Amino acid sequence: MTQKTSLESETSASATTTLSRRNFLRTTAAGAAATALGNFTIFSRQARAAEPLRVLCWPGYEERDVIGEFEDLYKTKVEFKIYIGGEQMLQFFAQTPPGTFDAIISDAEYVQKLKASKAIDAYKTDGFAELANYHPKFRDFSPTKGEAAGTVYGIPTRFSFYGISYNTDEMSAEEATDWNTLLDQKYAGKIGMFDWYLPNLGNASLAINPGNQTPYTISDDQLAKVKEFLTKLRPQIGMFGSSNQPIAQAMLAGDIVASPTGDLDIDLKLAGYDNFSSTIPKQGGIRWQEVACVCSASKNKDLALEWVKYMTSPKVQSKLVYTKAFKARGPNMKIVDYWDDEQKKLLSYVPDPQNPGKMLVETLIDRSMPRGLPTNQPEQAWIDIFNEFKTA
Amino acid sequence: MTTVPGAPSSKYMKTPNDSPLKVWFLAPLAIWLTVLFLLPLVFLLWIGFWRVENFQAVPDLSLGNYQEIFASFFSRSRYGLALVQSLWVAATTAVFAVVFSYVVALAIAFAVPARWQRLALLVAIAPFWSSYVLRLYSWQTILSRNGVINSILKQVGLSEYRIDIIYTQVATRIGLIHYLAPILIVILYVSILAIDRVLIEAARELGATRWQAFTRVILPLSRFGLMTAASFAVIVSLGDALSGNLLGGGAGASIIGKLPTYAGMIMSDYSSSTNLPRTSALATILIAVMVLTLAVGFVLADKARRRIG
């Protein structure tokens, strides 16, 4: 049995015992974050008594439908601290004492940042039987591979795409298969863009280097061409959205007709609007994926690994990617066994007429590359290009 | 004080103002300011001097963040252009918001019977009771291409006059004015209420027209309130990112160009990079601009008050 106190008591203990600079910084930062973020209520008193598993994650993982079976099976309680955005995840992690969290759901590219701060450990993939049902692109673990053979820092649990979402009354399916369509004069001021450099520069990288499997590993010359592409795209942009919601709203209102954000059509279709669709252009598109990691300071690693294993099951993923608040896709292809026809159609787990023997989602996965971090240039150089594009 | 001969000498009566304990009554204010303003501000300023190593903020006293930001102030990231956009949007918003609020405050103070004034004020500030974000989304529905206004214009056969202001800084200003107006109305109503009515009546009785009474008595005596309201409007507008994002579309067009606001850039930078020190430095620059604005507003308001005096 592990002896784990609450975060609150740990924080106050660190503040009162040794007031070293590090402790002071940590405590002050936590206090400042609590004030600034306003939702620093971490865990309930009731749950604390049961020595729970503690997970830092995106929304959805905490829903009863998703976690209930695990809690019943292991007779434990899983407590979740929800974050929205990778930067917030890193802030939450940095502002809590080591050992606060047992597991983290991270965006795949943030694994690199978690590794740098020694927050997570690699673990063996032996014994994860469900990986056999994963699409091959999720079995190569390219962004999260461990140093030793057969180890990973994270296993994918949920993903989706940054392709082109479009209004079918305004843009044809054929047009949507080419990034260059966005440069067409008739769409000037009619494109909405997600306000984040990483997926947009990744997509632009693919637009100029079609099929590049590593769109974030490009030369300075290629980066200059990415900038050129974005400069041409700027007059086409009608709005930047800080999240999917304002962009979907703009599409619905007719203020924009397309967006390289991907998947906006899912929510719009569910709301009863059938004139929206999405695809990944032929040059390729960026894919986001969440992965389950085990914290290096966890005293509950075995249970954390069992939870990771649980998250790989198709049944759990079928619920995880179809929560009330959010729809995405699952890497376990057996997920379809738990869905009705409508769900399969909505999330593209239906036969692809262009590629017999494959589901549409498999075609899209094949055409997509995981979102990553710039490797040949500093991150700031890419952010500068995006800022310059925004202010052009 | 006169002393009655033969009477015992009367003792000096102490008031609470003379008590040495009076300083303790300032404690709540001092604690409030220290905990909720000074400490967070100092912390923010301090982080601006930190650096990032291996994606983690490391305490330091480096000017690196400021050097980098100012090196790309009008090139690369071009924060300077965003700051110019912010100042333009904030200044014009303040002018429109103050004029609008002043008219409303005047109407409440002079056109509404005294017994109904409180109710009128309550109605005028009613929008303040609803969520700011909700109000912005409502404006999105009203102003968008297929929104309420354009739908009505289409219905009455005036579709060629459709408005196209969503995702421009005009829309940003509308959102900000809707946010600011209730607060400014209260500030201006209170300042109008402080004007001695006898002065207005005297002006009228000495032959001044209503317009002359307004321009020569009411307006000069409202100057202090107007300056205070304008300073407040500029500062709030400079710091707001929501209206610029939801109604201004993140980089809405103005006569300066299609540029984001500075607050929007800070938000975007914070969520883009694991670089809290740089974001803090960016925020510190905005605070410096705000303090400067406040100082100018204070000087102008003080001048106005002296003139009134």
Description of the structure:
The complex is a heterodimer of chains A (392) and B (309). Helix content of chain A is 38%, strand content 16%. With 392 residues, chain A is α/β, with parallel strands linked by helices. In chain A, the strands form four sheets. In chain A, strands 1, 2, 3, 4, 7, 13 and 14 form a seven-stranded mixed beta sheet that branches. With 309 residues, chain B is mainly alpha-helical. Chain B has a single domain (77-305), classed as MetI-like (MetI-like fold, Orthogonal Bundle). Chain B is built from twelve helices and four strands; from the N terminus they run αββαααααααααββαα. Chain B has helices at residues 27-47, 64-71, 79-111, 117-124, 132-143, 148-155, 169-193, 197-205, 210-239, 242-246, 262-272, 276-308, and strands spanning 51-53, 56-58, 253-254, 257-258. In chain B, the strands form two sheets. A two-stranded antiparallel sheet of chain B has the order 1-2. In chain B, a hairpin with a 2-residue loop joins strand 3 (253-254) and strand 4. The mean pLDDT of chain B is 90. The A-B interface holds A 21, 25, 28, 32, 35-36, 85-87, 90-91, 94, 112-113, 116-117, 195-198, 234, 237-242, 246, 249-250, 253-255, 379-380, 383-388, 390-392 and B 36, 40, 43, 54-57, 59, 68, 72, 75-79, 81-82, 137, 140-141, 144-147, 166-167, 245-246, 249-252, 258-260, 265, 267-276.
